[in-house]
Amino acid sequence: MAGRPYRVPPPPLVVSLILVAAVLAGCSVARPAETTRLRVLQMNLCNSGMAKGCYTGRSVDRAAEVIRAERPDVVTLNEICSGDMAALEQAMTQVHDGTVVAAFQPARNGRTGDPYRCVNGQQYGVGVLTHIAVPEGGHTVHNGFYPAQDPADPEQRAWLCVEASTVYFACTTHLAYTSATLALAQCAHLLDVAIPGLHARTRYQPTVVSGDLNLRHGGSPDVKTCVPADYRHRHDGGVQQFMATADVTIDSTRSIGMAGTTDHAAFLVTLTTSRQPDPAA
Description:
Layout: H1 12-25, E1 34-44, H2 59-70, E2 74-81, H3 84-95, E3 99-106, E4 108-109, E5 124-132, E6 139-145, E7 155-156, E8 158-164, E9 168-173, H4 180-201, E10 207-212, E11 232-235, E12 240-244, E13 248-256, E14 266-275
Parallel strand pairs: 1-2, 9-10
Antiparallel strand pairs: 1-14, 2-5, 3-5, 4-7, 6-8, 8-9, 10-12, 11-12, 13-14
């Protein structure tokens, strides 16, 4: 028609792309869950020198050999002396690039309030070694003592967690051996109070707990009664237990001989963690 400019309509593909762009501009695109493959190695080294039936003085050297052979990402350690951590941390750094964190938590002497001691005078307790592969390598150490302790036993039990920032929590503990009922109460405190409190105070991340609980699957009491219903759970057939939050997939478990250097085989768990990325990132 005379006097009116004629506009050529855009092709259908251009219209489609414009509509898609408009839709995407008004909503966020879901990002896939981030997964991390981990190998968690639990060892009770009986290295205090107090338990004569299992002390050999050779368990730390054997533990270092196992670490170098198996290349775990997390090592949880029970019945060790504070000086043992240096040799085991060195073994971890020999097989991993990036950041290796070594954390130690002594038991407490209930009679003096001081750290409990090995026969050699070093502090006695539990430890965690973690390899943090993410570039920033940030970490925080968390620990505490159980409110329920055996008044007849001067050794007061503790728990220890390493927070590998933006990736996972790795925790260990060694529970009371004098009473299975007391060990069960300590287990319940760790899983129902301490770890949920940790998540509330910091941020939620996939969490693994591995240690000598002095409780058995199928025992009386049964360790299962202190494990939350949505947790993953595996055991070595004895008192070493592995537990993890529901966003962890357990791929395999395996016991590893310690060549008679301690009274517990090492317990290796291979797993995959899954976490949703931070939407603000």
